[in-house]
Amino acid sequence: MTLSKLFHPLVWIILGGTIFTRIASFMAMPFLAIYLHNEIQASPLQIGLTIGIAPLISTVGGFFGGYLTDRFGRKSVILLTIIVWSLVFFGFATVHVVWLFILFNALNGLCRSFFEPSTQALMIDFTPADKRKRLFSLRYTAINIAAVIGPIIGVYISQLSSPSIPFMLTGLMYIIYAVFLFFVLNRYQMQQPKAVTQTKILSTFTILLTNRVLLSFILGAILINIGYSQFDSTLPQIIELKIDEGAKLYSLLISLNAAVVLLLQLPISIISERFSSTATLVVGVLFFAIGLFMFGFSTNYTLYIIGMIIFTIGEIFAFPTMNVMIDEIAPDTQKATYLGAAQFKNLGGFIGPIIGGWLLTHYMNAMFPVIAVLVLCSCIFYRTKTAAH
């Protein structure tokens, strides 16, 4: 079977759109903190609040976005969200008051939490169950391709012109994608919302809270995300403390992370298809923990590079598998609702930097081993899932 026949044409369109929109986003968002500091003269506290509001809002918003997607259909939520999202980026480019940046980044997090479950649910609708693990691996590869390309373009554009131009260009690209999707989604017959999903959101929330398997998944995923969040928060700080010209090493590790994902994503995906989702995720957790332990004991370039390769292999095993597991847990009529509820795992990305920062301040040498143990504890919750099935 050729690659083009592996998935429905609409799935390939959404995967291509994932690269397009993520490149647009990566052109601007990684530089939001620098933009706030240089152009708005925001304080570190204001910058922290602005950056932190997006994952916090998306944690809760994902549930509502998933519910609305199942309730009103994929197409409506996708198109409305991406139009609002484009306005958010135009807002970033034009406002000059900190509280408006906080508002716009809250909307940015909300839009992402609506868009992600709806596009993932749409791809699931058009993909047979036995191909979904490969689908989520390809989607993860698409995101990492964008993560390599987007920041390079963003830096180049901002150097040639105003620092606000990448935000403006991102908004324009989102509008182009919205118009394109309007015609594409009207061409294909969408899955209609099922009668069983026509329920009050409070009732749905109660159902999700009483689903032991889903709760186990979310609690385990929170612990994994606590570990992964150290990549952006405490790792650069501890490298700066331990290594001369630490910023140079950290930038190298960021590039290495993306390169390893692109190089190993497909072969690891093919290998993992032979095993259950639970087994695949546990393997990812073990690699994560070993990588974190290595970060704690590394004192030179070589050890950090080895640690990052191991850490990234854990990422490749774990993150696409999380989406597959949600697909396995969710009833056919509530795919987007469950994908949205799974966004509560992002609490780990909010809590992790706080825990890591406190450990870094008071117990620097023990920080990464403690975080690694927390990540390993997630395996307890995935044993629960195995038992439930």
UniProtKB/TrEMBL annotation:
It comes from the Bacteria. Residues 9-389 form the Major facilitator superfamily (MFS) profile domain. Keywords: Cell membrane, Membrane, Transmembrane, Transmembrane helix, Transport. It is found in: Cell membrane. The keyword Transport applies. The chain crosses the membrane at residues 12-35, 47-65, 77-104, 140-159, 165-185, 205-228, 248-266, 278-297, 303-326, 338-360, 366-384. It is a multi-pass membrane protein. InterPro entries: MFS, MFS_dom, MFS_trans_sf, MFS_Transporters. The keyword Cell membrane applies. This is MFS transporter.
